[in-house]
Amino acid sequence: MFKVFQLGLTTLKQLQTGAISADPRQQGILGDQALSLTVRCLSFDFIGTNPDESVEDVGTIQAPTAWRTVLQDPSTLQLLFDFYANTTPPQSSRAMEAVILLCSVRRSLFPTDKDRALFLGRLMDGIRELLSNQTGLQHQDNYHQFCRLLGRLKANYQLSELVKTEGYLEWLELAANFTTQSIRNWQYSTNSIHYLLALWGRLVAAVPYVRPDAGAQGHTQALEKQVLTVCEEYINSMLAV
Q1: CA distance 169 to 153
Q2: What is the pLDDT of residues 92-105, one digit of tens each?
Q3: Whole-prediction pTM
């Protein structure tokens, strides 16, 4: 399966760089197939712990150690973010689904905490860029998958890890703004908002377990400020219904 997974990524890279000569329709079909292949490989139940395949969020991805080099390679995550930014649904939403799966890879796949922190830093950079530019988020499918990514981020990473990443406070503010905008327009995002609310609930629940010397000076005060903003917007939205 590893070779199949590599084939999917290689095809995406060739499409991204224009190495494959084909008309737009053929490129679209090839991109759809390559993304579907990539997502299916990443979502495979490697150790037989997911009895219900209909569940949207499968939890931790138990990818084999032999996959480590490719999954940890910075170009793999960047390729998926680039493909998302340069396409439209359904390709872009499938690319974001692949990012979610990468975000969910088991902790033990990374040989050291430093390697895991570097991967998380690249993931946070990609999310901040999307939040800053609102790239593709006008499409409902992209928006839904992006909300899933934000929810998955805290489910798979501890707050103590997030606060140590460069740009954490900026990410926190951008995520809060995105959440409040989503709440104001809840009619168009009823199936996605619960991922955002779960993100903030998990962030708050994790505060007591973060040591004061964990990094990101003032992260507790910043989180409290953004949580209050989100809660106020949510309450006002519910009262206005």
Answers
A1: 15
A2: 999 999 999 999 99
A3: 0.92
